[in-house]
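WARN no homologs supplied; continuing
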Amino acid sequence: MPHRTAIRIRDPYVLAEHNDRFYYLYGTTDDNVWNGPATGFDVYRSRDLDNWEGPYPAFRPEPGFWADRHYWAPEVYSYNGRYYMFASFKSEHRRRGTQVLVAKGPLGPFEPLTGEPVTPREWECLDGTLHLDGNGSPWIVFCHEWLQVKDGKMCAMPLKEDLRRAAGKPVVLFSASEAPWTKAGQDGTVYVTDGPFLHRLADGGLLMLWSSSSRNGYAIGVARSESGSVTGPWTHDPEPLLPEEGGHGMLFRAFDGGLVLAMHAPNKQPNERAVFIRMEEKGGKLKPLRSGI
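OK structure emitted
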């Protein structure tokens, strides 16, 4: 049973499953996440967030699956009686996209819900996350990648109730350069959008955690919807959520009711590890509690 600090993982996502009182940890788990053939996604489970059973094979592609590389950032949700995984995939001849997979239980095995990604076929997209609006209708929030547009975009698109396809056109929420904390890379025109995750505050406000490059390296920023809905408009907190390097964050409720931030740090392979930080929500702000888990 490996300790959390022994598990190499990027883009960690935790599903706190109240049915069996296990935490399930998903993430980018291939040894070579940037090049070469991909293997799939693994999942771990734990009672205490420190010691984890696994890995269990959550997804392994069947022969003929369209993508063979860049299996990134799986997120799993309990929705309408089944478990749905949103994850990014790519092949040499197909643009990157977020595809929806489905399983009967959180350990999987997950299988593609449809034959192709739900994000626009002609776009380079990644890091799709599921959001249910005030009416309970599903949306996918995802990144239109800097590789195609240079100044990465954060987008939202309504989905059909069964999550099989889009129910409308994508809406651009903001560009990465709009946040005052982001730092341009390469020739000064490239801005990254990564890892959106939406969080409803106790007062009804809607926040989005997302990641980009900052002066301190890979970082998590906070965007706020002025309308309280996914379509915004969105404004940005001036500084990242944490002062040190660490990114691709999400929030979950521990079984004791406390709010926990999951992210990976550092951002350099092969040293990436899941980091869990207790958070406090006060006055519409998120504050890390350094006592940790």
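The mean pLDDT is 96.
OK
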